[in-house]
Amino acid sequence: MNFIDIALASETASEETVEPTGTVSTGPLADLGVNSTLFIAQLINFTLVAVILWFLILKPLTKKMAERQKMIDDSIDNAKKIQENLNKSEKEYQNRIDQAKVDANKIMEKTTLAATAATEEAKIIAKQEIEQLVLQARKSIKNDKDIMKAELKEETANFIILALEKIIGEKFDASKDKKFIEDILQKLK
Amino acid sequence: MIHIPTLAPEILFHIGKLPVTNTMINVWLAIIIFLIVGIVIQVNLSFRPGKFQNFFEYILELLIGYFDQVTGDRKKTMRFMPIVGSVFFFILLSNWLGLLPGTGSIKFGHDMLLRPATSDLNLTVAMALVAVISSHLFGFISVGIFTHLNKFIQIGTFIKSFKKGPIGVFTGIVELGVGLIEIVSELAKVLSLSLRLFGNIFAGEVLISVISGLVSVFIPAPFMLLEVLVGLIQASVFTMLTLVYMTILTTEPHAEH
């Protein structure tokens, strides 16, 4: 019974199509169910679907995706620039460090030379000062020696005088001393 | 009794003079679904997508990847997107809506209330026409009106061929004939696109109706799963072919040797 129904259904489908306006149309297109009113209605329906799909779903999503893609690209570009700047800075830093080392070495060399020169100069000055000190010391020693000699002479004279006084037994004062000297001088004459 | 869908969609009622068919109900259902999805996306559209937006972005990204393989250029893909994207999602949803419980079983009077929209030749012809006409419009915009028309009506080439001697004239006549064949092939594009989609979905609908009529449980399940696949494949085929037509017609013709 089912198969009979199927056969009947297929036959009725291929016979004729009633237009929505009421007219009966025949032919291959009508057999397939195509008619102008339904076609236009479905065209409008599809246009509506396309408009809704594009303006409400596809366009906003693709726009947002493009924006996100742009942001990602920009971020990657920025990251690359930052990396480049970092590399550049590191290179510059290394160059400056190297330059600083070279400068430091130069300064060290100069300092060493200056220190050597200063040491030599200081040695010469010290030598001269030592020589001067030695000379001064010698002078001082000589002076002291002279003073000591003079003091010794005076002490010796006093001692002789004291000894003579003891021997003579008389205290010499200035008048006596003068008289004694005059007597000796007269005797000598 | 098994109810086999007829080739023509059943008219359920009239709004004024406009007949409303069961396939139209499915189209309106699709429109409502797209409208809801669109509003939800618009409201929640964010730079950091949520799960819902992420899901659609993933599908779209996947689709754009496939489209790029055909067009070979992202800019072209995005130019064709309003047509091909709409065609793909609409066909896919319409095909899958036809598999929902209720399609073919809920009655409105003596007729089925729901029927897959793409099993209506009026809709598939409308979509095929939109696809082919828009491909020509893209062609006019991309390569210029005369260059594009010269692909079909090669009168310019034919006139120029007179300067090249008898062999040149013969080549010109052949190219003129080829141009005419190209015109026929454009009509064939509309026919093949619309009939392929209609035929596959209608056949699937008939198959499921018959199987469901014979055995109502378990047995129709594999066929329905097969129809899920058919729905996706047919949506892809229609979209890819549209994209191919658009890509070919927006490509500059080879220079004359």
Can you describe this structure?
- The complex is a heterodimer of chains A (189) and B (257).
- Chain A has 189 residues and is an all-alpha fold.
- Chain A has one domain.
- Chain A has a two-stranded antiparallel ribbon with strand order 1-2.
- In chain A, strand 1 and strand 2 form a beta hairpin.
- Chain A is rod-shaped.
- Chain B contains eight helices and four strands.
- In chain B, the strands form two sheets. Chain B has a two-stranded antiparallel sheet with strand order 1-2. A two-stranded antiparallel sheet of chain B has the order 3-4.
- In chain B, helix 2 packs across helix 3, helix 4 packs antiparallel against helix 7 and helix 4 runs parallel beside helix 8.
- The longest helix of chain B is centred in the last third of the chain and has 50 residues.
- Chain B is globular, with a radius of gyration of 22 Å.
- Classes of the chains: A mainly alpha (189), B mainly alpha (257).
- Chains A and B meet through helix 1 and helix 3 of A and strand 2, helix 1, helix 2, helix 3 and helix 4 of B.
Shape of chain A: rod-shaped
Order of helices and strands of chain B: EEHHHEEHHHHH
The parts of chain B where pLDDT drops under 50 for at least 5 residues are none
> Number of helical segments of chain A?
4
Mean pLDDT across the residues of chain A is 83
In which range does the helix fraction of chain B lie?
over 70%
Low-confidence stretches of chain A: 1-18
